[in-house]
Amino acid sequence: MSSDWDTARKTVGTLSIWIGTTALFAPRWIAGSLGVRPDAARDDVALPLLVRLGAARNIAMGAALLVTPAPEARRTTEVTLLLTALDAAAVWTARATGDVRPRSAVLSGVVLALSSYGAARWHRR
């Protein structure tokens, strides 16, 4: 159990930090890669700030996962799952209004499903 958690925690934490760092320094590129309309990814003046705010949160959550020992990780996984669900809801709302491509909605669904599976698996133990 502890070994499984440790591997998952380090993998997700490291990935979160790398994705957050990429978004921090290349917000328009990451937004376009994730399916934001090309004109918005290129021209929207608020987009870099909003992406960087999300990037900072991603980096913070990744760091929290890396430093949280297994016995205390329950709260960290709950918060991470909640934030992932809120992110997915925002992406699905943007998809409904045509602001993002279908791949963004699918990717958000996959991330939410994997996060939910991981949290459920961890909490059952």
Report on the structure:
By secondary structure, this protein is an all-alpha fold. It has one domain (1-124). It contains six helices and no strands. Helix 1 (2-25) packs across helix 2 (27-33), helix 1 packs antiparallel against helix 4 (47-67) and helix 5 runs antiparallel to helix 6. The longest helix is centred in the first third of the chain and has 24 residues, at 2-25. The chain starts with a helix and ends with a helix. The mean pLDDT is 84.
Quick overview:
By secondary structure, this protein is mainly α. It has helices at 2-25, 27-33, 38-43, 47-67, 73-96, 102-124.
Uncertain segments: none
Largest sheet: none
Shape: globular
Strand content range: under 5%
What is the helix tally? 6
The CA-CA distance between the termini, in Å, is: 7 Å
Helical content stands at: over 70%
What's the total number of strands?
Answer: 0
Mean pLDDT: 84
Radius of gyration (CA) equals 15 Å
- SSE sequence, one letter per element: HHHHHH
Structure classification: mainly alpha
> How many domains make up the coordinates?
1
Pfam families: DUF4267
InterPro entries: DUF4267
Protein name: DUF4267 domain-containing protein
Organism: Geodermatophilus obscurus
Brief descriptors of the model:
6 helices; 84% helix; mainly alpha; 125 residues; globular
Secondary-structure blueprint:
Elements: H1 2-25, H2 27-33, H3 38-43, H4 47-67, H5 73-96, H6 102-124
Helix pairs in contact: 1-2, 1-4, 2-4, 5-6
